[in-house]
Each structure stands twice: as structure tokens, then as C-alpha cells.
Amino acid sequence: MKWIPGAVSATFKKMPMNADEILSLMASCGLEAVEWSENAHVFPDDPEGAGALREKTEKAGLRVAAYGSYFRLGENADPAAAFRSSLRSAVALGAPLIRVWAGTKPSCEVGEAELKALCREAALIGEMAGEAGIRVAFEWHKNTLTDTNASAQRLLKEAGCGNLYCLWQPTAALTPRERTEGIRLMGDRILNFHVYSWPDGKRGPLNAAEWQYYFDAAADLSGERCALLEFVRDDSPEQFKSDAAVLRSLTERM
């Protein structure tokens, strides 16, 4: 198992920084991968702009880790058309995966009929992306079908599409033990990590001991994945540099 250190570009929305400045900062910190966020630095249905961003990323010596779409299951009258707009840009960006959201409300509020409809839609977009050689990964997030370990597993199982995965992050709704159980339960259906520390529900410096715990839980995963910084304390470039150094030290041990 190899972890590639990087960052999510949405981290920089409030700094604010353009794509060139983001790439320069990341390269100076020794980071190697970036998830470009939709509506922040890359836009749906804009293959020309996405292609130009891909060139900039590669020229800076970084790789594209993902396309961070804001497509949500159950939100569009024509989900195929809506997803296709994001997918076109993801293809031009050279993204190996596209991040999407698993619905619009907590899993405990989703009835059986609605769940089946969402699973059909998930299979639809998984197949569409698969035809383009791109994997689909659901954000691991509260108020969606990935808000518990069991619900996330059920979504992937009932969708029945092998091209559906999850990203992972330490959501506040789960205890540390539940978080590591989720990593082990999901196994290779988990792709990249979104990396941050929120002590007491507020952004804090990246906690090396906390994240060593999560990386250890993923020790049996195979292949290569990206660990992407997100949610920097005070939206500070200096804090980002410090967090990047912690992340690099962690990934270098793996």
C-alpha cells in the first residue's frame, strides 16, 4: 500500500488562491497530487478549461487525484444529463475518479422505495463513468447514504455496480472506533482519504497520532491511493505548510 500526499483544491477557496498559486504552494510543500473541485477551479461541461488545468498540473510536477464534482443522487430530473456535464470535464482533466454525493438527506430518513431509486441512479452514473475509464467515489459524509458504515455498504451492494467506491474522511458523527471499523469493512472499495483534524468540532492542526491510527487501519489495502489535505485551520497558507509537512512524514512511513 502506497499513499500519495496531496490536497483538495476547495481548501483554498477562502484564501483565495488561483490554480497557479495553488500548484506553486503545493509543489513547494512537496505534495504530489490534487483533487480539483468543481465550481471552484474547474467547471462542469468545460473540457477546454479542464484540459488546460490538466496541463498546468502536470507541468507543476503534480498528478490529478480526482475531479471533485457536486453531483448528488436524487437531485436532478435528468441525472444522466447532469452527470454527463461533470463527466466531460473529468475526462478532459485526466481524472482517474470523479467524486459525487450519495443523496440529500440522512440515511435514516430514506425509505425503501427511495433507496432503490437512488441505487439505480448510482448504478447509472457508475456505468457511464466506467465507459470513460473513470471510477465513481461517494463522499463519506453526514446527511447522505454514507453517513454510517452499514448504509454505505448497503448502497454499494444494492447498486450492484463494480465501478462504485467511496472516499473516506473522519466524520464527526462516527466515533474513532467506528471510523476504523468503516475503513476495514469497506476495504478496497475505499479510494482516497480526505485528511484533516477537527478537535471539538473545530479545525485544528493536523494530528499525526490520530492519522497514524487511520492509516494503520488501512494497512491491508492494496495498491496506491492519495491522502489529500482539506479544511486548514483559519484558511492559513502557513498552517497548510505545517499540515503538509505532517502528512508527508506520515505517508513516507507507509
Task: Provide a quick synopsis of the model.
With 254 residues, the protein is of the alpha/beta class. It has eight helices and eight strands; from the N terminus they run E-H-E-H-E-H-E-H-E-H-E-H-E-H-E-H.
Judging from the principal axes of the Cα atoms, what is the shape? globular
Intertermini distance: 7 Å
CATH top level is Alpha Beta
Q: Give me the CATH architecture, please.
A: Alpha-Beta Barrel
- Overall pLDDT level: 96
Strand order of the largest sheet: 1-2-3-4-5-6-7-8
- List the domain count as a whole number: 1
Largest sheet: 8 strands, parallel, barrel
Summed up, the helix count is 8
Query: How many strands appear in the DSSP assignment?
Result: 8
Tell me the series of helices and strands, N- to C-terminal. EHEHEHEHEHEHEHEH
CATH topology: TIM Barrel
How much helix is in the residues?
A: 40-55%
Structural class: alpha/beta
What is the CATH homologous superfamily assignment?
Answer: Divalent-metal-dependent TIM barrel enzymes
Low-confidence region ranges: none
